[in-house]
């Protein structure tokens, strides 16, 4: 039985050097609260970099948001709760990287 593919929205953050840990924690909490506020989010996970390879390029936080469709993702981006999160984040953000992709399984390959 074929599984319906999911749209993955991967977000990496590097915070400004002068951002206090308390503010980073507040931002983490605010992002983690979005799935309870925005029902378009099907799944959510996050973590901080623990790689020993030294290739994170300053990014410390990874957030992984799952949607069922492009329409859901597109509605999430301007959603008032997401916009409010962005306003909290922006003054403390050094840089961000966002990658969206359609989930593929090992059996599906790349085509």
Structural notes for this entry:
- With 111 residues, this protein is α+β, with helices and mostly antiparallel strands.
- The protein has a single domain (16-93), classed as Alpha-Beta Plaits (2-Layer Sandwich).
- 31% of the residues lie in helices and 29% in strands.
- It is built from three helices and four strands.
- It has helices at residues 21-37, 70-76, 80-89; strands at 7-15, 43-48, 61-67, 93-102.
- The protein has a four-stranded antiparallel beta sheet with strand order 2-3-1-4.
- α1 (21-37) runs antiparallel to α3.
- The longest helix is centred in the N-terminal third of the chain and has 17 residues, at 21-37.
Kindly summarize this structure in a few lines:
31% of the residues lie in helices and 29% in strands. With 111 residues, it is of the alpha+beta class.
The main sheet comes to: 4 strands, antiparallel
N→C terminal distance: 18 Å
Runs in which pLDDT lies below 50 for 5 or more consecutive residues are none
Name of the level-1 CATH class: Alpha Beta
How many individual β-strands? Answer: 4
Shape category: globular
Question: What Rg is obtained from the alpha carbons, in whole angstroms?
Answer: 15 Å
List the helices and strands and how they pair.
Blueprint: E1 7-15, H1 21-37, E2 43-48, E3 61-67, H2 70-76, H3 80-89, E4 93-102
Helix pairs in contact: 1-3
């Amino acid at each position: 039985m074929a599984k319906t593919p999911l749209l993955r929205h991967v977000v990496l953050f590097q915070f400004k050097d002068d951002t206090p840990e308390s503010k980073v924690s507040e931002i983490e909490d605010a992002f983690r609260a979005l799935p309870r506020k925005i029902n378009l989010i099907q799944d959510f996970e996050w973590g901080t970099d623990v790689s020993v390879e030294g290739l994170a390029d300053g990014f410390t936080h990874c957030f992984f948001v799952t949607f069922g469709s492009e329409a859901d993702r597109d509605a999430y981006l301007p959603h008032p709760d997401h916009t409010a999160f962005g306003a909290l984040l922006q003054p403390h953000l050094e840089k961000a990287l966002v990658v969206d992709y359609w989930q593929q399984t090992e059996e599906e390959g790349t085509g």
